[in-house]
Amino acid sequence: MLKIAIVENEADQAELLRGYVMRYAEESGVKCQAVIYSNGLEFISGYSPGFDAVFMDIRMPLVDGMEAAERLRRVDENVILIFVTNMGQLAIKGYKVNAMDFIVKPVSYFDFSLEMQKINREHDRRSSDYIWVKAGGVLRRVDFADITYIEIIMHDIYMHTVGETLNFRGSLKSLEEQLDGRSFSRCNNCYIVNLAYVTGVRDDTVVLETGDELHMSRTRKRAFMNDFTAYFTVAGGSR
After folding, report:
1. Do 118 and 101 contact (CB within 8 A), yes or no?
2. Which of 72, 26, 69, 70 is CA-nearest to residue 50?
3. Helices 11-28 + 109-126 axis angle, to 10
4. Which of 25, 48, 167, 217 could cross-link to 32 by cystine, CB 3.0-4.6 Å?
5. Strand 53-57 relative to strand 191-194: parallel, antiparallel, unpaired?
């Protein structure tokens, strides 16, 4: 899924771009989600990495697009940034914040769809949807979407998936690095959870749709809840 942020203070323009995202999704068959922010301050306040691309207006109240982009780059160097503006001369400064491109208003669907194609190609280049693990002497390909949670007992990894549990020797830290930037988060030192399967959090317990209940440690709780909130804000809780 492509997760797109639209930062635009003009409601009609924001809805136009959101409509373009949905049209591209329908025509291309690529799942897309668009989240609208009405100004740069709303977007950057509490920002957490998770978007594939940001369409950013430049001329906005409170925090303009260029300042928002500069602050964005302090916390996320990788998200694709595209300026949408009627001020082409300012968009040229986008190199300072590593903007991929800019579109001049009024935005046509043709121009917008070309940018979406670039985003989709870059998304495919950056990511794969599976991980290779060696369990029971056999090298296995496991889709990220099928992993419900991963636990470690001593030095044994137990990767719980929709259909089975795979056991192999390894490091939870190494797996965490491979899963970085995806819908996974640690709820304690023993568990990495796929947030797509979380149905609720009760006190210090993470409840999964599989029926599993995992303990959440006090030291990990804040970071986990931030990840949990960000996931459902950006992805709408869907997988």
Report:
1. yes
2. 72
3. 60
4. 25
5. unpaired
User: What tokens appear for 86 in the block?
Assistant: 């009627």
Q: Tell me which residue of 43, 51, 52 sits closest to 71, measured CA to CA.
A: 43
Confirm if 82 and 102 have CB atoms less than 8 A apart: yes
Residue 230: C-alpha distances to residues 62, 83, 131, 139, 222 (Å): 23, 23, 23, 33, 12
Q: Residue 46, exposed/middle/buried by CB under 10 A (0-12, 13-18, 19+)?
A: exposed
- Check: CB of residue 53 under 8 Å from CB of residue 5: yes
Bridge partners of residue 206, in order along the sequence = 201, 214
Is the full-model pTM beyond 0.85? no
Tokens representing 104 are 């001049």
